[in-house]
Amino acid sequence: MTASTVIPLFIRGQDYAPEKSFDIKSPATGKVLHKSAGASVDDAAKAVDAAAEALTSWRRTTPQERQDILLKAGDIMSRRRDELATYMVGETGCASDWADFNLDNSIAMLKDVGGRVPTLASSFPAMANSNRSAIVLREPYGVVLSIAACRHQKINFIGSAAVGRIIAKQAAEHLKPIVLELGGKAPAIVWEDADLDLAAQQCALGSFIHGGQICMCTEKILVHEAIKDTFRQKLAAAVAAIVLINSAAAHKNKQLVADATEPGATILHGDVAAHESSTTRMRPIVVDNVTADMDIYKTESFGPTVSVLDIESEEEAIRIANDTECGLAASVFTQDLRRGLRLAEAIETGAVHINSMTVHDESALPHGGAKSSGYGRFNASLGLEEWTRTKNVTFDR
């Protein structure tokens, strides 16, 4: 592709090029990679209506036919994996490892869902009346949108809590079910018996992978008093340079750090004033001496900024970990599995990873949050069931 290439929309199985387009620029270099078609509201409605019309014939396909389509899609993506990775790295400025993870995960999910399709079974519950029988069928909702529309069946949104609330409100007005995966403020608890080298490496990775711009990224590291100094040294040594993907995110993180340092927080690692070659770049910042009245304590940074706080007891760790509206992911580092499980049970979140970073996603595990991090689940059998509803059919024996 060249800078003048326009990536079209895809509606009714065909390329569609509207009059408007916009530049796709590399965050790393600022150069125009290619152009993308600019969809209008009318174009979006056409695409949704086309999908709704296609549902009529899709309903007549067998589970095996649907399975074949999903497995074929996974095979195509697998064969074009390197090409797709090049596009992702260029368009988002992400590291090649992050592109590889997302593509491998996408391929695995297509294959996983394809394998599960034939297992969506009906059930035959026992009726109170022995002369009656029933079947509980599972059928698909139909077209699922990420933007609320009153004439379609379900909404799926992944993004910020602020936008999630707006979409949920619109969905409620039309009585539409919704699946939300929203922001996070993931804590990592490092206990005194933890493998500190592992904890430092995983906390650094969990905080700064993809520039910290993942909803599951570590935002607070809660360190036991007994090992606070040693851990801080190891964490600082484990932190590596990272690149953000847009200037607004870099500005937001610098402002959070500035607001925290003015009343007393300190910089354990990094330099918020460091000169960068581009406004989209920002080096990792580790903020120490953070207090609950600072914006950075509760605001999701969604960038390469992490706070370190000290704790003395499990009760204090749980209180600080839960002192947020969000609840998407968490980590606990300890060699005592019982303690790890005890803390995992007490943290109000959708996932807790013991002795591993907060960022984790795979097709076999249901993924979603608690509190303001949303509701509903993606992945695995629970995720597949989110896209179906039950229908009761009763009859005389």
Q: CATH superfamily membership of the largest domain, which one?
A: Aldehyde Dehydrogenase, Chain A, domain 2
- Specify the helix fraction band: 25-40%
On the 0-100 scale, what is the average pLDDT? Answer: 88
Helix and strand pattern: EEEEEHHHHEEEHEEHEHHEEHEHEHEHE
CATH architecture grouping of the largest domain: 3-Layer(aba) Sandwich
Structural class: alpha/beta
Strand order in the sheet with the most strands: 12-13-14-11-10-15-16
CATH fold description of the largest domain: Aldehyde Dehydrogenase, Chain A, domain 2
Description:
- This protein has 397 residues and is an alpha/beta fold.
- It has 3 domains: 6-119, Aldehyde Dehydrogenase, Chain A, domain 1 (3-Layer(aba) Sandwich), CATH 3.40.605.10; 132-182 and 374-396, no CATH class; 186-363, Aldehyde Dehydrogenase, Chain A, domain 2, CATH 3.40.309.10.
- Helices cover 38% and strands 21% of the residues.
- The protein contains 12 helices and 17 strands.
- The chain has helices spanning 41-58, 63-79, 81-92, 96-116, 161-173, 196-208, 228-238, 247-261, 295-298, 314-322, 337-346, 380-385; strands at 6-7, 9-11, 14-16, 21-25, 32-37, 132-140, 144-145, 154-158, 178-181, 186-190, 218-224, 266-269, 285-288, 305-311, 330-333, 352-354, 388-396.
- Strands 12-13-14-11-10-15-16 form a 7-stranded mixed β-sheet, sandwiched between helices. It has a 3-stranded mixed β-sheet with strand order 1-5-4, with no helix packed on it. The protein has a 3-stranded parallel β-sheet with strand order 7-8-9, covered by helices on one side.
- Helix 6 links the parallel strand 10 (186-190) and strand 11 (218-224).
- The longest helix has 21 residues, at 96-116.
- It is globular.
- Residues 147-151 have low confidence and may be disordered.
